[in-house]
Amino acid sequence: MTNSDLMEVCGVTKTRIRIPDNTELRARLDQEYEDASQVQLCRYALMLAAHILKLIDGSKLNHDTIKEGFWINEQWQEGNARMHDVRQVSFKIHQMAKASEDMAVCTALRVVGHAVATAHMREHAMVASDYAVKAICLLYPDCLEAVRNERLWQIQHLQEIKRTIE
Q: Which pLDDT value is given to residue 61?
């Protein structure tokens, strides 16, 4: 049985990008994800995106489209935005990522795009988490301790959100 077969059997979401990872901690995050509400996942994903933007000096990315994405997701959480609006702004952010020549900026924008899209589909929260690990790998090449610390950060913050938001 391959690792991906084992992941399917265990109900763990598949990693859609190739990253060096701590599979045990990713599985723990996946367990937290499984019983989180979509609103909790949206709040987690936006917090994750802000965290990654800060790590890569997101001041370079102080862009109106990113602000709009956060705002639209927050409005959706309150029942005040259409799914069409969520998808459109997420697409715009992914276009920005595709146009970026800086791999760290591109990856951070992927985190943001998937974080915003979590309002559309909850699975985007896990994809955003994986892209966050990719960003960490770009910032700290060959440092599995940095990956471990990022996964622990993700688990801790998702647990915290689940405790405080119904």
A: 75
Q: Is 53 in contact with 108 (CB distance < 8 Å)?
A: yes
The predicted model scores a pTM of 0.91
Q: 62 Cβ partners below 8 Å, 6+ apart?
A: none
Domain spans in the chain, listed from the N-terminal domain onward: 22-164
Per DSSP, 102 falls in state -
Please report, as a single letter, which amino acid is at residue 8.
E
DSSP string computed for 11-77: TPPPP-S-----HHHHHHHHHHHHTS-HHHHHHHHHHHHHHHHHHTTGGGG--HHHHHHHHHHHHHH
- Mean pLDDT per 10-residue interval, the chain, length 166 residues: 39 84 96 97 98 85 91 98 97 96 95 98 98 97 97 98 91
* Residue 134 to residue 111: CA distance in whole angstroms: 9
